[in-house]
Amino acid sequence: MPDHQNGLQVLQEPDPGYRGQLLDVVAVHGLNGDPVNTWTHKGSVLRSSTMWLTDLLPEKLPGARIMTFGYDATLVGNTSTGGVQSNAGVLLADLKYARERYEGKNRPIVFVGHSLGGIIIKQALRFAHDNETEFSDIAKCAKGIVFFGTPHRGADAARWANLATDIAAAVFRRSPSKFVEALRENSEDLMNISEDFCLIASNYAIFSFYEENIYTSLGKVIVEQTSAVMGLPNEEAMMLGGNHSSMCKFKRGDRRFEIVWRHIQRAAKGPLR
C-alpha cells in the first residue's frame, strides 16, 4: 500500500502470466479525499479494510496496471496554490513519465474520477488533446472515463462543508479551500472546462455514477443527478448506492463493485456506439 503522497503512484502491475489485452487504470480522488482512503472501505474489525483498487480490481482485470493520483484537496487549511488546471498538468506529466518508465505506451487508458477528480481528468484530457506533440500517446490511448459523483455543473458551497468534521466545517465557513469556489454551482471555471471537454467527449466511453443516498448531516445528496450527469450522447448514467463519500468504497462481495469493474472493462474499448 503506498504512502498518501501527492503525484502518480503505481499500485499494481499486470499479472506477468496474463496474455490478454493490457490497460492502464488511473484513479483520481476528489475534494477532501486522498489517493488511498477515497477508495478504501473501512471494516468494523481491525485490519479488515478493503482498498478495491489493489484488493479487488486486479482479480477481475489481471491485465491492468493500476495507478492512483494524489494532490492537496483538503477542505480546510489548504495552503497549496494549485488549482484544477495546474493539477491536471501534473497528472498528465506524471502519467507520461510512468508510461515511458514502465513501458506500455500503447496501452488503452481508463480514468476513474471521484467528485473533483473527474473535473481534473476532463481538464487533463483537454490539455492532452491540445498538446498532442507532447502527450500524443495519452491523447491517442485514452479510451474511457468512469465518474463517481462528479459535479460537472457544481454544487452549493454549503454542501461541501458536510465533507469536513463538525469542527473543521466551522473553520471551513471562514476559510474554505480554493476548490470550493471553483466547484460552486455553474461557476465560470466549471462551465469553461465543460465546454472545452464537450468538444472532445465523443472520443471516450463515458460512465457517470450518481449518488443514491443522502448525506445524513445535510439531509440531501452532495451532488445532484442533474450535476453528476452531463447528458452526452456517448454517456451512460446510473445511480449507485452510497452517499457522496461511500459510493466509491467497496468491500469484497459488494454487488456495486461488480457493476463498477465491468464498466471499467467496457470503458477500455472506447466510445459507446
Mean pLDDT: 88
The rough form would be described as globular
Q: How would you sum up the major sheet?
A: 7 strands, mixed
The H-and-E topology, N to C, reads as EEEEHHEHEHHEHHHHEHEH
Kindly estimate the percentage of residues that lie in beta strands according to DSSP.
15-25%
The CATH H-level homologous superfamily: Alpha/Beta hydrolase fold, catalytic domain
Please outline the helices and strands.
Blueprint: E1 7-12, E2 23-28, E3 40-41, E4 50-51, H1 52-55, H2 57-60, E5 64-70, H3 84-101, E6 109-114, H4 116-130, H5 132-141, E7 142-148, H6 157-160, H7 166-172, H8 178-182, H9 188-198, E8 205-211, H10 225-228, E9 235-240, H11 255-267
Helix pairs in contact: 3-4, 4-5, 4-9
Characterise the protein shown here.
The structure is a single chain. The strands form 2 sheets. The protein has a 7-stranded mixed β-sheet, sandwiched between helices. Strands 3-4 form a two-stranded antiparallel ribbon. The longest helix has 18 residues, at 84-101. The protein is built from 11 helices and 9 strands. The chain has one domain (7-267): Alpha/Beta hydrolase fold, catalytic domain (Rossmann fold). It is of the alpha/beta class. It is globular and about 50 Å long. Helix 3 packs across helix 4 (116-130), helix 4 (116-130) packs across helix 5 (132-141) and helix 4 packs across helix 9.
